[in-house]
Amino acid sequence: MAGFNSVADLKPFKTMWRVKVSIVRLWKQYSAAGGLTIEMVIIDSNGDKIHATVKKELVNQFDHQLEQGKTLTLTNFSLNHSVGSYRTTNHLYKISLLATTRVRSCEALPVGLNGFTPVNFQEVLDGSLNPDFLIDVIGHVVEVSHVEMIHVNGKETQKISLELRDLADVRLPMVLWGNFADQVTNAIQLRGEGRLILVLRFGKIKVWKEDRSVSNAYNVSDVQLNPNMAEVEAFRAMLPADELQLAIVEPKPLTLASGVSVKDDFFIHTPRKTIAEMIECRQVEKCIVMCTISAIETDMGWYYLSCKPCDKKVMYMPPLVAGDHEDDDLQKFKLYCPKCKSYEPKLLPRYKLHLVVLDHTGNSKFLLFDHLALQLVNQPCIELTGPITDEVQDPDVLPLALQNLIGKTYLFKVEIMRENFVYKHDTFKVNKIITNLAIINEFDTPKAPKEPSTQISRGHEYSIVSDAPEGSLMLLEEGSSQEGFPSELTPAKRRGGPAVNLEEEFDQNSVTKTGISTRVKKEKVDKSG
Ligand SMILES: [Zn+2]
């Protein structure tokens, strides 16, 4: 259309440009230097993209006019060099809106202009793509680890490792942090028969020594599974017609996060205790216990019904009968999600295992929630229960996959809580497990002087790409997803409160935390400048 400049022509020498663009991606970001800004990637009808920023002083002025997916005309704006290690487009410049910029809504651009430009995996792996530029990825998920909880900057955040293949059957390692890790796990649990196609937009190429992988970056990235996009249909149609099954694997055990590996956490930073020492302990602390699972306490059940979207435990509500409470017909009780306030919650069973454990000094009980149980069973709960709509009916019937845990020895990182030593609650909460046999054996071997050279080279072999700056930031902005449990069980949050046991607390969380949201403010230090 006449009167519009093309994005490709934009240069800093003047401000009186006019473009007609769609907002492909929009997010708000906080940096120490810039405060809260609006960041966008916009595209014109030629398919050319450019980054645009609204500075903090102008956020209020433009916030209501800008929305992902909208088509706008922008008139009169400045251009600066596009720099840094998180560049969203390959345009040399980026737009900065001015107080005098004019923004107008207009009719949409031709459909299909979503700016999605997936890369060839080989070009990520062989280093031909510059890691300063964020990339789009489409791939068939062929391998996935269970979710790990990783300690990053004083917070626990979820991490999941995946392997994707492209049409050339090149395999790309991917690590997702924060909510995306949970979303992917949930999608996998409910995947059914079809193949999982993952679309990552604005992902970050991670380089660690010679190895390259892709991760989500800040709140720039977007991850979707089987999204409704023409590109996904085309990709799916061109995949080889093999029967490649999705493999659920153990994550690499020694992940570096905040400079502390899980192994160091278990071997150096957390004191080791026997079961007897753990039980005798009189202070809140964490410890590592090496012990063997001797039984699963079936009276406690082994799963609970959660509301799929919000993770909360659902509850049975009695039928509503006005003025008369005599209708106790069990059939009329309905499942209810107290958080979503929904009487027809989508159900997903999740593990809640009560393990009886022992070592040479005694025995105790450990409580494991879904993420950790998944690490032991390597099979999502729903695969053991099948599609269900009810509580555990016959607790003594344990699926074989759970029976098989009996007799296994692992390293458990256990939280000793006030209730355990003040009120003698005999169940301890586990917050990390190492299942890797080599590491367990090493832990079990009395420390003997070793040749230093061997030690060092081993350490290197174990390191994997996982420095996780994005992970920590993802957590801060998306911390609300983790409300409820198990993080609600931390002693700090219950200071001074009445003592309850874990089980009761878990049930109460489902009820009393209704509607309470602990949204954590976004914080991000923009190191790209
Ligand atoms: Zn819910």
Automatic annotation (TrEMBL):
- Domain Replication factor A C-terminal residue range list: 289-422
Polar residues bias locations:
508-517
Q: Where is this region: Disordered?
A: 478-529
Keywords associated with the record:
DNA-binding, Metal-binding, Zinc, Zinc-finger
Q: Does the keyword Zinc-finger apply?
A: yes
User: Any keyword DNA-binding?
Assistant: yes
Q: Which InterPro entries match?
A: Euk_RPA1_DBD_C, NA-bd_OB-fold, Rep_factor-A_C, RFA1B/D_OB_1st
- What Pfam families would the database entry show? DUF223, Rep_fac-A_C
Ranges for domain Replication protein A 70 kDa DNA-binding subunit B/D first OB fold come to 3-106
In its UniProt record, a GO molecular function of this protein is:
DNA binding
Q: Which family does it belong to?
A: Belongs to the replication factor A protein 1 family.
Protein name, entry field = (rape) hypothetical protein
Organism expressing this protein natively: Brassica napus
